[in-house]
Write a structure and sequence with these properties.
By secondary structure, the protein is mostly helical. The protein has two domains: 87 residues, Arc Repressor Mutant, subunit A (Orthogonal Bundle); 58 residues. Helices cover 54% and strands 6% of the residues. The protein has eight helices and three strands. Strand 2 and strand 3 form a beta hairpin. Helix 2 packs across helix 3, helix 5 runs parallel beside helix 8 and helix 6 runs antiparallel to helix 8.
């Protein structure tokens, strides 16, 4: 059985809150929704890579059902179906749920040198810093270098660029244009 990054992380802590269990159960239903014609899933503790009892599946599933995210299809409480609303909540990473659901998705495949987390903004910042360094080393006059830096600063201020690169641009702008707020 494949273990997700989130499940491995939770296994290390050994303490799982209901919001984490709701997220994992809902995500499991989301993954299994295409495996049967009626989108139902027969869930057992063996489906999870962390200790989860049948009673916990029923308890957590009932919480999801109370809020319209899942539906129990039998009286034993082991066959569940994710609702359309539950699919939307998973696809939005838990946003819009009427009950707290902690969903963590990390899917990286066929990639080399991928950094997940704050290091991505550091890579962007390093690339921008390399551009500034190249401008400084270019065989051009001081006025041309200043003009190039101002154009680069305008590029970094553009709303589309700031939405993509995020906070990395703001910190760099303070370096390029000290008056930038």
């Amino acid at each position: 059985m494949r273990t997700s990054w989130c499940e491995r992380r939770l296994l290390k802590t050994r303490i799982m809150k209901d919001n984490q269990l709701r997220g994992l159960l809902l995500h499991k239903l989301y993954e299994h929704r295409k495996e049967s014609q009626d989108m139902s899933s027969l869930l057992s503790p063996a489906d999870f890579s962390f200790p989860m009892t049948e009673m916990e599946i029923i308890r957590i599933g009932s919480q999801l059902e109370e809020h319209g995210l899942a539906k129990c299809l039998n009286s034993m409480g082991n066959i569940w179906r994710i609702t359309a609303y539950g699919v939307v909540v998973v696809e939005r990473g838990g946003i819009g749920s009427p009950i707290e659901v902690k969903i963590t998705n990390t899917n990286i495949s066929h990639s080399v040198g991928v950094v997940v987390g704050n290091n991505n903004s550091q890579d962007i910042r390093a690339s921008f810093t390399e551009i500034l360094s190249a401008i400084d080393k270019a065989p051009a006059s001081s006025e041309e270098k200043l003009a190039a830096k101002n154009l680069f600063g305008q590029f970094l201020k553009h709303p589309l660029v700031t939405s993509i690169a995020g906070g990395a641009t703001q910190a760099l702008l303070k370096t390029i244009l000290p008056d930038h707020k």
